[in-house]
Specification:
alpha+beta, 3-stranded antiparallel beta sheet, 3 strands, 31% helix, elongated
């Protein structure tokens, strides 16, 4: 663990992760940094506590909106990645 994080924690500063990625794609960071607090994932669409494996808040797109995005990307040859709780496409 980086010494800067050790010093911050000794001062009582809580640390967490904020990422545009899904929580499962950041497990290596959470473990290597020893993060214990809930983090923000999917660019803010998910608040997840990796210690208890609990979703605290989730804001997903509606199915029709997702299908519209896929349709637009296909029509305009735009690369698109879609993430779910369990995988990505």
């Amino acid at each position: 663990m980086p010494q800067a994080l050790v010093r911050l924690r000794k001062q009582g500063v809580k640390t967490a992760i904020a990422s545009g990625r899904p929580h499962y794609a950041t497990d290596f960071l959470i473990q290597s940094l020893g993060l214990q607090s809930a983090g923000v994932f999917f660019t803010g669409a998910l608040v997840y506590d990796p210690a208890s494996k609990t979703t605290l808040a989730k804001h997903s797109l509606d199915r029709d909106d997702v299908l519209s995005v896929i349709d637009y990307c296909r029509k305009h040859n735009v690369y698109c990645e879609l993430y779910t709780d369990n995988g990505y496409y």
